[in-house]
Amino acid sequence: xxxxxxxxxxxxxxxxxxxxxxxxxxxxxxxxxxxxxxxxxxxxxxxxxxxxxxxxxxxxxxxxxxxxxxxxxxxxxxxxxxxxxxxxxxxxxxxxxxxxxxxxxxxxxxxxxxxxxx
Length: 118
Hints:
By secondary structure, this protein is mainly beta. It is about 0% helix and about 55% strand. It has no helices and 11 strands. It is globular, with a radius of gyration of 13 Å.
C-alpha cells in the first residue's frame, strides 16, 4: 500500500505563492510517479504536473508552465509543487496521486485547498 498526504494549501492574494507538499509512505517506490491534479468547484479534475521517481522527469499543464515547479526530495520521500504568480483561476482542491505505471493512479491523497483572491 501507498499513503499520500498533501499539505501547504491556504489563502493567498493573486500574484502570491504557495508550496504544496505530498509526503509519501509505504511502498511508494513501487510506483511510477507522483502527479498533481486539481479540481475547482463545478469543474472536471485536471492534470497539473508530474514527476517520475526514477530520473525526475517532469511535465506540466500548459496553464501552469512557467509559474509552477514540481520537485522531489528523495531523502524526505516528498514531492513539492511550488506555485508562483498565482491567479484566481488556480483556486481548487489540489490532490497528489500515484500509480504502478504511467497513467495509472491507484493511490490518492486527501487533497488540500488553495484559494487565490483577486
